Amino acid sequence: MLRHTAAMVYVDGYLVPVPVRKLAAYRSLARKACRVWIDHGALEYMECAGDDLRIPPTVSFTSAAGAKRGETVVFAYVVYRSRAHRDKVNRAVMADPRVAAMGKLPMPFDCTRIAYGGFSPIVRGRAAKKKTR
Predict the structure, then answer these.
(1) In angstroms, how far is CA 9 from the centroid of its own chain?
(2) How many angstroms separate the CA atoms of 85 and 59, rounded?
(3) Is the pTM of the predicted complex or chain greater than 0.85?
(4) Per-residue DSSP letter, 66
(5) Could you tell me which residues come within 8 angstroms of residue 20 by beta carbon, excluding any fewer than 6 positions away?
(6) Under a CB-based contact definition with an 8 Å cutoff, are residues 62 and 53 in contact?
(7) 131 inside domain
(8) Is 77 inside a domain boundary?
(9) pLDDT digits over 82-126, tens only?
């Protein structure tokens, strides 16, 4: 296990292949999930739909996510204070009745194809805030 060297945060990352025709339904579900994670203490929650995924000579996100014809890739991440904080937040999220209700809805993607992992940042940068006059 890596120790936090670049920043005292922990990040969960996701790659999700989503049918383009179901992207609006996915966005709706993601907005609900965002609210739940933030309500339980996540510092930041971001979901991004791919629109420039095949950039030679790199391995494309489309390939990495196993996206099929008619699918795009959603890249998502959630930021926490630490891995312990992540574990606490995720336990609360999984016990939240809003998540149970979402689980009863038809999913706009194949849940078995999500790539997920927890990450310790090794480099972190931020733009300096400009002073206003």
Answers:
(1) 15
(2) 32
(3) yes
(4) T
(5) 70, 71, 72
(6) yes
(7) no
(8) yes
(9) 999 999 999 999 999 999 999 998 999 999 999 999 999 999 888
